[in-house]
Amino acid sequence: MDEKSYMFIGHQKGRNTKENIARNFAMPTPHGYRKALRMMKYADHHGFPIITFVDTPGAFADLKSEELGQGEAIAHNLRTMFGLKVPVVTVVTGEGGSGGALAIACSNKLFMLENSAFYVASPEACAAILWKSSQAAPKAAEKLRITAQEHYRLKIADGVIPEPLGGAHVDPAWTSQQIKITITQAIKELENMNTEELLQHRRLKFRSIGGFQEGIPVEPKRKRNMKPSEVNMPKAADIELEIENLKKKILEAKGPSDPITTQAIEKLKKDVDKEMTNAFISMGLQEKLESVKLELSKASKDTSSQPLNRNLKEKVDKIMQEFNHNLSQPGAYLGLKQKLEKLNLVSRLIEKEERKQKLKAEINQKVPAELKEKMELLKNAEEKISKGEPVDKELMEEVEAVKKELVEVLKSANLEVVGVTKKNGVTAPPELKEKIEKVNTEIYEEIERVINEAGISGRIEELKAGIAKGSSSEDIEKAEAKIKEEILATLDVEALKEKVKSLTVELDLPEETVAEGEISAENGKFQ
């Protein structure tokens, strides 16, 4: 260049996809870095100034490159370039990505084209690390300060080379002349230095990046731009346990709401609002949301009674559609999703409890005072039965009459009575428990005898094994029906019925009440 020898080293991208693939998208391998190192040593030996052109997204990060020592090759380049005894000038023509660019950019002078970028990580990668979403790339690019103007202001770049309107590719000849002029001036300045001054100049250039002052007390900044670590985030099991506790508190609450539950729900709402705001910011929708809020506030002031503007409604729907789409992506915003589910569940439980209390109040209003007094009779009878005290026949008749009267009152109040159920586990008086147990024992012994005589025990075991293996329900039902038929055919049912009937007479209760829950499918033998 101008009848003077230089060593030119640089990355080269293509102008189309085919050329990009042929040049590996300007991502060097360890071979490329080692070749560049040999050329730099050659130039250092013969005294040629070195000019490097940087345009790479970074070193090629594949398995083969790692096996060949990608990191070691970059490290050797960095160390060697700081010891070169000739001037080194770097021009960033497109993008400079991390160590892949720095491996040929440890120079005395660094220049950047007006529209070039130099960064430690791409905006998409930075957004994925800090905000867990690549959609926050615009925000990450602003925080990274990747432009030529920012690098010049921070004294990382020594100058910004102008480009024609529309970019360097609009007029490559003019741009190349600007690069040539910049390089020539820089080399002329550097050639006036001796070897020690040149090495010291290069070292101090990088030492001055990120300058600091000592001895001045500075208050620590508590602001944090990183997303909080997920190590201490509540696990799904903890959230489920918290939901169950809330359920119990809501269902057990009588009268005014429990202040603890109210506080927990309010805290949950605040957490959801905060998470929603962070999600809108990371999705890049915060500015749109603020503008829509401003328009809504203006519209509400201007037309308080008129319906919402159609265009404004479409904007709101579009923002919410985009938000829901981003939120529905698998693995995205897991904390927000869990809290939203929790809040929805709590809201449903509260609504259910309110309906229950409202219905209870309506029933109490429609039930006459006389009937309320009679309902005390039901409570007394229930207490006696639960304690195992004997219940006479007259009391049972009164209880049945009160039940029927209560059903009629509820029907007259336009309330549908689905059915009246009997509580399981009614205990008999202590003096009759032995008789009940004796009858049950006789029934079980009779069934056991029939099974042994008929040789059905083997088939019952086969049925159990089939159920354990998960056989089809039709086969299991057929086998059960066949076993039942054989047992009933051999069993003396009439004798057993007589024993149960005699016991019910003593208890003065219906047959099904005595036998309910007592004669069960013990070991799958009888149903």
Automatic annotation (TrEMBL):
EC number: 2.1.3.15
Segments forming a coiled coil: 396-453
Enzyme class: transferase
Annotated GO biological process: fatty acid biosynthetic process; malonyl-CoA biosynthetic process
MF terms (GO), sorted A to Z: acetyl-CoA carboxylase activity; ATP binding; carboxyl- or carbamoyltransferase activity
Keyword Coiled coil: yes
Limits of the CoA carboxyltransferase C-terminal domain: 1-189
Name under which the protein is recorded: acetyl-CoA carboxytransferase
